[in-house]
């Protein structure tokens, strides 16, 4: 990159965002250009900062639980699972078997819903309008299941520390099976539209390449890491909520480009359906809550728990001083960490490619800024 103090006559500094629709929220990217070629980028974040972690240190453990749903608001259920698992580890309690199976079903539905938002908006960014209507049609079915279960659609507060918020409604299993039967042919339909589409392939192939070594250096996780050929998924590597009992594959790519990341996420949705069907066949009877005191006061200590959220490793670090409120709360959001790699991926690309690259990272600014 040229000396940033003095610009050559051919160089230009351009602001993309924070109002630009393709930045997926209030993200400002300062682009340094030579014509249309990217010489360097700088992400300016913080426009959506709400101090969620500091709020957590001034609320009781139960009171903070709904706040985490509002970080990655596209994958609220996954956020709730990670937080509940962290507090449960502090308390040394485990959710009952029935609660664990239902948690798996709801979080895998959440993974599909998150990927559907990514697919629809990513295609919209690079000029394909139709997939947005298709993906939101299927996502609506998942939102309806959530609404019947707990009354919420977007910031879905589904879990409690120690188990579940509610018992399943009558017809829950039937609704989930009907969705799975409907959804798998729809994924094939998406692929017929997109996977061999020469415009889409040209916009994504060899764009935003990030190899395995770069992913590890930047701490990139989730579909971006797997697209680079690294078979790393916390559901397999460090199983939680009984994931070791389920039979599913970890899709990986070869080139680590935008197209591979697209293919990985498409296959992940199919694998999520596979997990949901297995879980529906094994929902046991029994309680949905462990024995957790009404006033939660974990012993003094600290804990870090991470899960495989739709966007990558989502971790919660909590320090307890023995009181009813956490002494320290820190969230490791995959969107924030993965966004670090934007500069590496964008250098040498064109301005139009930046739109495709930001879309393929699949960021949510509520999670980036917190």
What does this structure look like?
- The protein has 15 helices and 8 strands.
- With 370 residues, it is α+β, with helices and mostly antiparallel strands.
- The strands form 3 sheets. A 3-stranded antiparallel sheet has the order 1-2-3.
- Strand 4 and strand 5 form a beta hairpin.
- Helix 2 (61-68) packs antiparallel against helix 3 and helix 4 packs antiparallel against helix 5 (130-150).
- The model has no long low-confidence stretch (mean pLDDT 91).
Which stretches of 5+ consecutive residues score pLDDT under 50? none
Estimated radius of gyration: 21 Å
Strand content: 5-15%
Give me the count of strands.
Answer: 8
CATH class: Mainly Alpha
Query: Looking at the structure, what is the overall shape?
Result: globular
Give the strand line-up of the largest sheet. Answer: 1-2-3
CATH architecture: Orthogonal Bundle
Tally of individual domains: 1
| Secondary-structure element series | EEEHHHHHEEHHHHHHEEEHHHH
Mean pLDDT: 91
Determine the structural class based on helices, strands and strand pairing: alpha+beta
Total helices: the number is 15
Largest sheet: 3 strands, antiparallel
What's the CATH topology name? Cytochrome-c3 Hydrogenase, chain B
Question: How far apart are the termini?
Answer: 31 Å
Helix content, binned percent = 40-55%
CATH homology superfamily: Cytochrome-c3 Hydrogenase, chain B
């Amino acid at each position: 990159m040229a000396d940033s103090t003095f610009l050559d006559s051919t160089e230009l500094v351009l602001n993309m965002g924070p109002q630009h629709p393709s930045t997926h929220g209030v993200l400002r990217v300062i682009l340094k250009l030579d014509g249309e070629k990217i010489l360097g980028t700088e992400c300016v974040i913080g426009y959506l900062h709400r101090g969620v972690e500091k709020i957590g240190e001034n609320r009781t453990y139960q009171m903070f639980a709904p706040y985490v749903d509002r970080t990655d608001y596209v994958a609220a259920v996954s956020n709730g699972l990670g937080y509940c698992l962290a507090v449960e580890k502090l308390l040394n309690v485990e959710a009952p078997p029935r609660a664990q199976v239902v948690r798996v079903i709801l979080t895998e539905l959440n993974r599909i819903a998150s990927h559907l938002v990514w697919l629809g908006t990513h295609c919209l960014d690079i000029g394909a309008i139709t997939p947005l209507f298709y993906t939101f049609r299927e996502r609506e079915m998942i939102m309806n299941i959530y609404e019947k279960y707990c009354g919420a659609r977007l910031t879905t507060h589904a879990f409690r520390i120690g188990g579940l918020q509610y018992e399943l409604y009558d017809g829950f299993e039937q609704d989930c099976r009907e969705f799975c039967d409907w959804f798998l042919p729809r994924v094939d339909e998406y692929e017929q539209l997109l996977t061999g589409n020469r415009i889409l392939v040209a916009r994504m192939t060899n764009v935003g390449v990030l190899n395995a070594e770069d992913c590890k250096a930047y701490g990139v996780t989730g579909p971006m890491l797997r697209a680079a050929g690294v078979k790393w998924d916390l559901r397999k590597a460090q199983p939680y909520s009984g994931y070791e009992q389920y039979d599913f594959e970890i899709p990986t790519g070869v080139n680590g480009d935008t197209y591979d990341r697209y293919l990985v996420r498409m296959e992940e949705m199919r694998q999520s359906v596979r997990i949901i069907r297995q879980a529906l066949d094994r929902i046991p009877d029994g309680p949905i809550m462990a024995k957790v005191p009404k006033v939660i006061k974990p012993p003094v200590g600290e804990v870090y728990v991470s899960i495989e959220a739709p966007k990558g490793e989502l971790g919660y670090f909590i320090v307890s001083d023995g009181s009813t409120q956490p002494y320290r709360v820190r969230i490791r959001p995959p969107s924030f960490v993965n966004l670090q790699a934007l500069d590496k991926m964008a250098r040498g690309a064109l301005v139009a490619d930046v739109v495709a690259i930001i879309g393929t990272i699949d960021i949510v600014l509520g999670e980036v800024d917190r």
